[in-house]
Write a structure and sequence with these properties.
The protein is mostly helical. It contains four helices and no strands. The chain has one domain.
Amino acid sequence: MSQKLFQAACAALWGPQYRAPAARVLGIHLRSLMRYDAGERTVPPALFVRLLELLLKRELEIGKLKPKVAAAGEKGARSDARVEADHG
């Protein structure tokens, strides 16, 4: 269970090629990360605490960006509609 959860959390933060960036940010050797990833070693609880901190930080960052991106999309949609009306 902890192996799959570790993999899912790392992939959510750094994408499918998460190993090197995850090891760097978590402050662990790449080989250690690979052992956790392969299920050869138990993931220490402290790493899950750190992953949670990083996930919460990312969640806040995304939350701040969502309304800005939505507004930009709405503005872009209105501009597209005007261009189509002018050339239609």
